[in-house]
Design goal:
The protein has 6 helices and 26 strands. The chain is mainly beta. Strand 25 (344-345) and strand 26 (349-350) form a beta hairpin. The protein is globular and about 80 Å long.
Length: 403
């Protein structure tokens, strides 16, 4: 059997009356505007409406975080961070193979997109919350129009700030070494700057004015770059990982992703799915987005042709690869469609019967599991693994560490 779109909703009907529902939720809609429909609380951007709204969101390969007057920059804008592999710390014995854990440093404010109008009255709101994206707004004070809006999509090649007649400032907790305006504009209407930080990392800033008035930036001090006037348009930030990356960014500048729609088909063991990106900004520019390794492995021939030799490390997902395309298609030619509830392996398929020895081993393991003190295991010093125990206990499974 084939399907035109395997991701189509089966039904939008209300659940049966025997399934109880309630209209409220223990998590408040902190800063969420213009959206009354039910919202997911386990999304990459959830930290923008949880707690103090100032914890990181990982878009991969970058992470972003509302500075909220804190951090080394004391900024009120959106901090952009990128972590290299050599910054990861392994432990407790870094020489062990494998190590028990690794840690990515957090709170490094490489470049902060902000505005001089922001300060102690600044608030953050979100709108257009979807399964794949969110719009983050930073307002000088409650009730004002957004000074800057940030459309966030996982994998985005640029961190894009849409300035609404506000005065751009760039800040850094790593400190600016230099900023240089490119002698040649990458395209009409786009101004380009090269920035070098004190950690020797190189970044690009692209300014696309929608009002016709350009943007002039200059270093005020080692932690602050200021514009000479208010600005209407987009500022885009990207890190240069290698030679050749700059030309890729130049061609894609001025366009930014706003979300994506997922569709897929399947026929027998063969399937394919497509992520079609929606975008804003310059319509004649093709998006640059970063794909994770498992996606690159499944790219169709057409999508493979759009892959560029531009790579950036992610915190936990491996090395991401730049793709210049407005959609990606992934193909899976050998899906395990025959898999059932019986034991299964790629080479043997479904195993209908077990030997007496295998049955005895399973029974012995189950008996040991039932004797464990689940309450004690779920009250440990790790929120992560204690939570796994609680979830697995509720459905009758025992979690396995390091999986």
């Amino acid at each position: 059997m084939s399907s035109e779109n395997i991701f189509t909703l089966l039904s939008k009907d209300a659940p049966p009356s025997v399934i109880a529902s309630r209209p409220d939720h223990p998590v408040k809609r902190l800063g969420i505007t213009e959206q009354k429909a039910p919202l997911s609380t386990n999304k990459f951007y959830a930290n923008f409406f949880l707690g103090g709204q100032n914890q990181p969101s990982w878009t991969h390969p970058y992470s972003v975080q509302w500075s909220k007057g804190g951090g080394s920059s004391k900024s009120w804008g959106l901090a952009v961070s990128h972590i290299e592999a050599n910054q990861q710390v392994f432990g407790p014995d870094p020489k062990a193979s494998p190590a028990e854990y690794f840690i990515n440093p957090s709170g490094i404010q490489h470049v902060v997109l902000s505005a001089s109008e922001l300060g102690t009255s600044t608030v953050l709101t979100t709108d257009n919350l979807t399964a794949s994206s969110v719009n983050v707004n930073i307002l000088a004070s409650a009730g004002n129009k957004p000074a800057i809006s940030f459309p966030l999509v996982q994998g985005m090649g640029f961190i894009t700030g849409i300035y609404n007649d506000s005065t751009p400032i760039l800040q850094s907790g790593v400190f600016f070494r230099s900023i240089t305006q490119a002698k040649t504009a990458p395209k009409e209407g786009v101004t380009k700057y090269n920035i070098v930080l004190e950690d020797s990392s190189k970044w690009l800033v692209y300014a696309h004015s929608t009002s016709g008035q350009g943007l002039e930036l200059s270093i005020a001090d080692h932690s602050l770059i200021k514009a000479t006037s208010k600005f209407q348009g987009t500022l885009q930030i990207a890190k240069i990982p290698s030679d050749g990356a700059e030309a890729v960014y130049d061609a894609a500048s001025g366009a930014y992703a706003t979300g994506w729609a997922l569709s897929g088909t399947a026929k027998g063991p063969a399937g394919a799915y497509t992520m079609a990106f929606s975008k804003g900004g310059l319509k004649d520019a093709t998006l640059v987005m970063f794909a994770l390794p498992h996606l690159v492995e499944s790219f169709s021939s057409t999508t493979k042709a759009a892959v560029k030799d531009v790579k950036l490390q992610t915190t936990t997902k491996g090395v991401a690869t730049a793709v210049v395309a407005d959609s990606w298609t992934m193909e899976e030619p050998e899906m395990p469609v025959g898999m059932g509830f019986a034991p299964w392996s790629p080479s043997l398929g479904n195993i209908a019967t077990l030997s007496p020895a295998a049955i005895s081993t399973v029974q012995s393991a189950a008996a040991k599991d039932l004797k464990q003190d689940m309450s004690a295991q779920s009250n440990g010093d790790s929120f992560y693994f204690s939570g796994k125990v609680c979830r697995c206990k509720s459905i009758g499974f025992r979690p396995i560490a390091n999986t």
